[in-house]
Each structure stands twice: as structure tokens, then as C-alpha cells.
């Protein structure tokens, strides 16, 4: 692979914001292989517990300075980071594509998300609004204001190796927090690249060492963050199983957690749908990132009268998909992240067959020389029933379930009858159907769309879901409040001391 960023050629250990490396005696490495071609592209030393403690101590010291920097000034530094990511968009997007396996267009799109959230955060730095309220007591004033929390821990997943970090970090920074990031052990190189890209900005602005910190490792490093009372907020993206462990650990110390977990997302297609809109949206939602998005479309719930037509159109569209090296923009679908993910795909296929499912588009592994990494699979479509255990389970692979319904309320019930509650959509030109889907008796997901798919959220809206998806909200809207603590203030500017509720207290 060509050099796309000036990265170290020797095994490295991540450290703090200005690039200082905390070396230790460990000889272990995290080996990052590209699922595109199976090549070893990086070896990174995992952080030891001593490394971790040193990073957190540095972050604590940095917080005492960073919280005093005016928020608009913090926003200006984030703006400069956005300019750096613009400068390196092609290089970082290519690295994301190569290390993670998503298409180059999606890799570039992920870097654009970083740029967009930087722009959003710059504006947010001047809009950390509080409230003022009238007091019941004369010559008193009441208000609410917001203060930074401290250290924000960020655990990100392999499927969006840089964008989700930025959703958290950029907002956390303008709010006055410092960040400790643990990227997925499957994509450490992209995290190092992001740290390197922002280093120049941090140094040029005399940002205190420790505002941006990086640790590496597997679940053990995540457990350090979860159990550490010095971590004021832990934002974790990953599986529901991981989220339960994080939530339990953080709650046991009465800490704060922000969880973005699994999805089992459905699109309802009514008899009033524009199928020329619906089919491309369904296909992209189902096969984009090789089915490895938390917002991937996994279920299509189709009205009886158009079921056969939709099935036929989807089969035709899938026949046009081109699978191959994600760096080649002529391909639609790249590889799964690793061979363990391939095993999960195969197990799901077996479970579908055992349940009696019929494949509209057949599954399979691709083992030609061009697919030597062993990570390429065929996107497939299976006719299924919503209550099957395999359909209730989120499989991180390009498997689409085709379900049918008669009445809209039945479709909504099927949409909601899974443990997860992230993203959902309906395709209809009927206003009543659309509004019912968006009403309190409609979708129970954090995201509900009309005439667009389940994936591809914009950063302007708060992102997150309900039920086993975790309930957290990141990115836009008022998600910044999760990264701050609320304080209520009452100010007495009079010469007497009246008490609330008319209580009298005489001395």
C-alpha cells in the first residue's frame, strides 16, 4: 500500500495530545491487518496500566487549565482542527477505507463527518446557553448555567473508527472537557493518524499537554475507563453486550455513561411508496459498509400487495452489486472487518436455513485470488419471520430479512418488536401513514425517517436510540448537555433574607 500519511514505521505506543509517547517494557503488539488484502499494515503497542494511569494524570492536570479557556477560544482551536482534516481528507479517508474495509467513498464521507462536527462545534462554543428564571422571593434572581465535567472517556468501534470519536471529542472540547480515547483494537492506525493530524494545531495554540489523549488495547483498557472514578463521563460505542458491562461498571461508581449500541433497523414499504426511491435506499442501507453499520437496514417490512414486486426489484438490484477492493471506487461492497465477522455471517446463514428461511439472493463466501484476505462475503436477502431468534439478533453483516404485512399497525408492531431501537424508516407518499409512523404510536426508535433510509445520519441532529441501543445522544442538537454539568444559581441582591415557600426563621 502507498504511504498516505507520515506515520511511524516502528511499533508505537499512543500517549497524549502533543505526541509524547509513553513507552513501557511490554513487547506485545496489536497487529492491524487490512481486510481488503490481508496485509499487515501496523503494529501498535497496547497501553499498560502504568501507561493508562500516567495518561489520566496528565489529562487531569490539563483539565485545570483547559476549563478556564473561554469557550469561543476553544471553538477556534476546534475550527483549526477542522481545517487540518480538510487538508488530509483524502489521505485519512483512504486509510480508513484500507484499515477498516469500507468503500473509499464511505471513508471520505467519514472524514467529512469530522469536518462537519468541527464546524458544528465552533458555533456551539458560542451557544452553551443557560436559563434565567423569576424567583418567588423579592430582590432575587435565579439562573442555570453549565460547567465542564472533567475527563471524558471515549470508546469507539471499528466500523466508524474516526467519526464517532470526533462526535464526542469536538463537542467535549468546546464544552471545556479533556478526552481519553480508546479506539477499537481492530483499527488503531486511524486513531494514531487523527492524533497526529491535530497535534500541530494543539502545539501552535499552546494547548496544555493532555487535552487529547489516546490509549490502546482490548476490553481490559475499556474496563480501566469504566471503573475509574476519574473519568467523569464514558461514551461507549459498540455491541449491546459491551454496553451492559460498561453501564454496570460506571453505575456502580455513580458515574455518567453515554451508550451507543446495537441496531436492528427496519424499513416499512407501504403500497403508497415510490419504489424508485425506496429500492436504492434499501440497498445502500443493507450493503453499505458491508452491513457493518449500527444503522444498517436489516429488515424490510413490505405490504402484501407489493411484496412480490419489491422482492423482484431487490433481487435485480443485488445482481448489479460489485464486490471488491474498497479502494477501487468501481466497487459497491468491500470486506467484513475480519474472519471472525465472516464466521458470524456464516452462523447467521445457517440459523436462517434451520428456521426455514428462503433466500431470495443467495449467500456465500468469495475465495477467488482477488479476495485472498478471506473477509469477502455476498450480500444476501432471506424471506423470514420477525419473531425468529436470528431476526431478533443483530448480525453485523450484509444480511437483509424480507418480511410482509397487511395493515400499517401490524407493520409498526413488527418494526418495534425487537430489543433494539436505533433507526427506522417508512416509504410512503400517504401523509396519514407517514404521520402515524412518526407519532407516539409509531416507531419507538431514536431515529425515524420518511422516504429516506435508516443509515446516513447528518451531524445536525442528535444521534442515538432507545431500548438496547442504550439511550445516549451524540453529535448535534442539544447533545452537548451530556458533556456538561448543570448548576442552578440563586442570587440575592436585596437587603433582606426572605426564604422560599414563605418560611419564616427569626433569630
Structure description:
This protein is of the alpha/beta class and 507 residues long. The protein folds into 2 domains: 12-260 and 470-488, Aldehyde Dehydrogenase, Chain A, domain 1 (3-Layer(aba) Sandwich), CATH 3.40.605.10; 265-450, Aldehyde Dehydrogenase, Chain A, domain 2, CATH 3.40.309.10. Helix content is 36%, strand content 20%. The protein is built from 14 helices and 21 strands. A 7-stranded mixed sheet has the order 12-13-14-11-10-16-17, sandwiched between helices. It has a 5-stranded parallel sheet with strand order 7-6-5-8-9, sandwiched between helices. A 3-stranded antiparallel sheet has the order 3-4-21, with no helix packed on it. Helix 2 (71-87) crosses helix 6, helix 3 (89-100) crosses helix 4 (104-124) and helix 9 packs across helix 10. The longest helix is centred in the N-terminal third of the chain and has 21 residues, at 104-124. Mean pLDDT is 95; it is low at 1-9 and 19-25. Residues 1-22 are annotated as: Disordered. Homotetramer. Its EC number is 1.2.1.3. GO terms for molecular function: aldehyde dehydrogenase (NAD+) activity.
Amino acid at each position: 500500500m502507498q504511504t498516505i500519511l507520515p506515520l511511524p514505521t516502528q511499533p508505537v505506543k499512543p500517549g497524549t495530545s502533543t505526541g509524547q509517547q509513553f513507552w513501557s517494557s511490554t513487547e506485545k503488539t496489536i497487529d492491524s491487518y487490512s481486510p481488503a488484502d490481508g496485509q499487515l499494515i501496523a503494529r501498535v503497542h497496547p497501553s499498560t496500566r502504568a501507561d493508562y494511569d500516567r495518561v489520566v494524570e496528565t489529562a487531569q492536570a490539563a483539565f485545570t487549565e483547559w476549563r478556564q479557556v473561554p469557550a469561543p477560544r476553544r471553538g477556534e482551536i476546534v475550527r483549526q482542527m477542522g481545517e487540518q482534516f480538510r487538508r488530509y481528507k483524502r489521505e485519512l479517508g483512504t486509510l480508513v477505507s484500507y484499515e477498516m474495509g469500507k468503500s473509499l467513498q464511505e471513508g471520505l464521507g467519514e472524514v467529512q463527518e469530522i469536518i462537519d462536527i468541527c464546524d458544528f462545534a465552533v458555533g456551539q462554543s458560542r451557544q452553551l446557553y443557560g436559563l434565567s428564571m423569576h424567583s418567588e422571593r423579592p430582590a432575587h434572581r435565579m439562573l442555570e448555567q453549565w460547567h465542564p465535567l472533567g475527563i471524558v472517556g471515549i470508546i469507539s468501534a471499528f466500523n466508524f473508527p474516526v467519526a464517532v470519536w470526533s462526535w464526542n471529542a469536538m463537542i467535549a472540547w468546546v464544552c471545556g472537557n479533556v478526552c481519553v480515547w480508546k479506539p477499537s483494537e481492530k483499527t488503531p492506525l486511524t486513531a494514531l493518524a487523527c492524533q497526529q493530524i491535530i497535534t500541530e494545531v494543539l502545539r501552535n495554540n499552546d494547548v496544555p499537554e493532555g487535552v487529547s489523549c489516546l490509549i490502546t488495547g482490548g476490553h481490559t483498557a475499556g474496563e480501566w475507563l469504566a471503573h475509574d472514578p476519574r473519568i467523569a463521563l464514558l461514551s461507549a460505542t459498540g455491541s449491546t453486550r459491551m454496553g451492559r458491562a460498561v453501564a454496570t461498571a460506571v453505575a456502580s461508581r455513580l458515574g455518567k455513561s453515554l451508550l451507543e449500541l446495537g441496531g436492528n433497523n427496519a424499513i416499512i414499504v407501504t403500497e403508497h411508496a415510490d419504489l424508485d426511491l425506496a429500492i436504492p435506499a434499501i440497498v445502500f442501507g443493507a450493503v453499505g459498509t458491508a452491513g457493518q453499520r449500527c444503522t444498517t437496514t436489516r429488515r424490510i417490512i413490505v405490504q402484501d400487495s407489493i411484496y412480490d414486486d419489491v422482492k423482484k426489484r431487490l433481487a435485480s438490484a443485488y445482481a448489479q452489486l460489485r464486490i471488491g477492493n474498497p479502494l477501487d471506487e468501481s466497487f459497491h461492497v468491500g470486506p467484513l472487518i475480519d474472519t471472525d465477522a465472516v464466521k458470524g455471517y456464516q452462523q447467521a446463514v445457517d440459523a436462517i436455513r434451520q428456521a426455514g428461511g428462503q433466500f431470495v439472493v443467495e449467500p456465500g463466501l468469495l475465495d477467488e485470488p482477488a479476495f485472498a484476505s478471506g473477509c469477502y462475503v455476498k450480500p444476501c436477502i432471506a424471506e423470514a419471520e420477525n419473531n425468529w431468534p436470528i431476526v431478533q439478533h443483530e448480525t453485523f453483516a450484509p444480511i437483509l430479512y424480507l418480511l410482509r404485512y397487511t395493515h400499517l399497525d401490524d407493520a409498526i408492531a413488527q418494526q418495534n418488536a425487537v430489543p433494539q431501537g436505533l433507526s427506522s424508516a417508512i416509504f410512503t407518499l400517504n401523509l396519514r401513514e407517514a404521520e402515524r409512523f412518526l407519532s407516539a404510536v409509531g416507531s419507538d426508535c431514536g431515529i425515524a425517517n420518511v422516504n429516506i433510509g435508516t443509515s446516513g445520519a447528518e451531524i445536525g441532529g442528535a444521534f442515538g436510540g432507545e431500548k438496547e441501543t442504550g439511550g445516549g445522544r451524540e453529535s448535534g442538537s442539544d447533545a452537548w448537555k451530556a458533556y456538561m454539568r448543570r448548576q442552578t444559581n440563586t442570587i440575592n441582591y436585596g437587603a433582606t433574607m426572605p426564604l422560599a415557600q414563605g418560611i419564616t426563621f427569626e433569630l
